[in-house]
Amino acid sequence: MKFVLFLSILVSVALADKWALFVSGNFGWYNYCITSTICRGYTILHDAGVPEDHMVYMGFNDILHDPDNPYPGQIFTDPDPEGPGIDYAPGCLPHIDYLNKMVSAELFMATLSGNKEEVTKLTGIENPRVIESGPEDTVFVYYMDHGAIGFCEVGKSDLHEEVLISTINKMYENKQYKQLVFYFEACHSGSMFRKLQKGKNVYAMTGSDTEHSAWMNNCPPNDVVNGKHVGACLGAWFDNFWMQEVTDNGADLTHNEMFKIVHEKTAAETDQNVSQFGDIETIGEMAVKDFIGDYKPVKKAAHAEPKSMVRYEDVPKHLAMWKAIRADSNARSDAMAELEKVVRDEARKEIMVMRAAREYFKDDKLADAAAKSRPASYSQECVRDITTSLMAVCGYTLPLHDSHLSVMENICANGYVQLDYTNIC
Fold first, then answer.
1. Which residue of 43, 73, 311, 330 is 20 to 30 Å from 392, comparing CA positions?
2. Coil, strand or helix at 287
């Protein structure tokens, strides 16, 4: 029976149109890799023959002309110390449909679900480009930004898991796709698909699980392109592995085979637990090329395995530190001031979270212990609400530190709680 179902899937794919949505959800130099990886992903699908009018791209372009960018207008995901590197900007940036301040969770969901009226309302663009897939079509969604348990950031707003799952369910009911695939990169990104039901013809591969952060790579000191230090984390661990596999070997492998490769390579170096959800037994056995196009490998510059991995929450301090280390005498004062600001901002976040622990436990030793070990179980909704409240009321910013998550989990170990944030902020 499974073979017959799988055979019918293969036949339907041959008749399907391919649609793709790319979401690069954040800006700023410390988020260089969010732009670079999604840009590379778009370029791969474009080169694989997916029509431009079947791809929608929302994202940011600020890093192109950031004062810290030694290569204005260019974007890299890998170092190339003695060569020119591979610049992905020409392949993606002319194709951004929704730029900078337009990017939001609401726009993401409206675009995915083909709601032109809502997209026009959000952007002011008449006859906007959206995913207009039908019942025989495939849809591929590639997303990257910051995440926490139960939600992720998309530009100026947050996408909660319930909203994502509700959108998927409505698309399924409206027969807006034959198969829908997500490659979804964020810290704690597995939490976005915990409630995804099997049988919806949806497959999701996430950069991490519910509990763990994501890791960036090709960070300083291994960030050199053509003799210059870029000064950024060029790529992301999960993203570089899946895209390099396609670039080197094509897209004939299945999603399950891709998962095995990326999961094992990522787990060999980090605690980032690449995960998969949904219809793993059926769509997971379909070829990646059925969604992203039949990419033909092209011989380019020699590729080295990613190096210099940094947990995402540590990226701002890591980059500011290396900027200060490399600064010449004329720039050292400004570089040190930037580093001091990053350290101060991180300390402020730490204090917020520890105040929350103290507010709940009413005991300094218990508050301190809460940051050092995680409970066996906790209310994930409680953790999500504490995180979003700290962000909204106190100005906490993602990414979420592991010790901060540990505190929140311990606060929520016995179920849902409410805190008085006047004593925390």
1. 311
2. strand
AA identity, residue 49: G
Total Cβ atoms within 10 A of residue 179:
23
CA distances from 80 to 105, 214, 229, 338 (A): 35, 24, 10, 27
Phi/psi of residue 94, each to 5°? Answer: -65, -10
Average pLDDT over residues 37-47: 96
Please answer whether residues 288 and 247 qualify as being in contact, where contact means their C-beta atoms are separated by less than 8 angstroms. Answer: no
Q: List, for residues 252-298, the tens digit of each pLDDT value.
A: 999 999 999 999 999 998 999 999 999 999 999 999 999 999 999 97
Q: Is 153 helix (H, G, I), strand (E, B) or coil?
A: strand
Average pLDDT value for residue range 179-185: 98
Give pTM, 2 decimals.
0.93
Q: Amino acid identity, residue 279?
A: D
**pLDDT for residue 181:** 98
For residue 300 the two structure tokens come to 């380019």
- In whole angstroms, give the CA distance from residue 189 to residue 312: 13
